[in-house]
Amino acid sequence: MENETPNAAEMAGAAYQVPAQTRIGHVHLQVTDLDKALDFYCGVLGFKLMLRFGPQAAFISAGGYNHHIGLNTWNSLGGPPARKQGAGLYHTAILYATRAELAGALRQLVAADYPITGAADHGVSEAIYLDDPDGNGVELYWDRPRAEWPMSADGEVQMYTRALDLNALLAEAV
What is the CA radius of gyration of the chain? Predict the structure, then answer.
């Protein structure tokens, strides 16, 4: 019993919570064609190529960080696109600091004539949804300041999904 790992039932009573300041540092995506993926993530979304390992992998960044997104073809070169049904990654969410920055990303998508699959106002945030060339979901969003989040009378966040006015958002592009 000395080195046994507790099972989920034994852990259920534990009060541990991940610390509030915890962040997800980066994501690695399997892609079928590295050049097409780089054309999208760097050419359309504006990430910077930090490092490339031939046709097998690339690491891209916003603001000079070592990498926010890793792209690789290690198990997916020439394979089928990402599945829409079943287990797997639903989308990668890319957070913009301001509404104007999100508007700039939208302007870039419109200029590139890149298809948008959805857009929503969630009360706490505004989001634009699209798929990368491999069918991986991508969410571009900004968070409203917490003081503006819709709250119930008992202090619970009241998220919702409403249509996002893309023309009004575009008007704020910097």
Answer: 19
Average pLDDT over residues 70-74: 96
Give the residue ranges of DSSP H helices in the chain: 8-11, 34-38, 99-111, 166-170
Helices marked H in 39-125: 99-111
Q: Count Cα neighbours of 138 within 13 Å in the Cβ-side half-sphere.
A: 23
CB-CB contact of 116 with 108 (8 Å):
no
The identity of residue 156, as a single letter, is E
The answer for residues whose C-beta is within 8 angstroms of residue 122's C-beta and 6 or more apart is: 159, 160, 161, 162
**What pLDDT sits at residue 76?**
94
The per-residue pLDDT for range 25-54, each reduced to its tens digit, is 899 999 999 999 999 999 999 999 999 999
Single-letter code of the amino acid located at 19: P
Q: Which residues pair with 143 in a beta bridge?
A: 125
Which whole-number Å values give the CA distances from 147 to 9, 62, 97, 151, 157, in the listed order? 38, 27, 16, 9, 11
Q: Which residue has the higher pLDDT, 5 or 122?
A: 122
The proportion of the chain whose per-residue pLDDT surpasses 90, expressed as a percent, equals 76
| Number of neighbours of residue 127 by Cβ within 10 angstroms | 21
Q: And the tokens for 50?
A: 């930090």
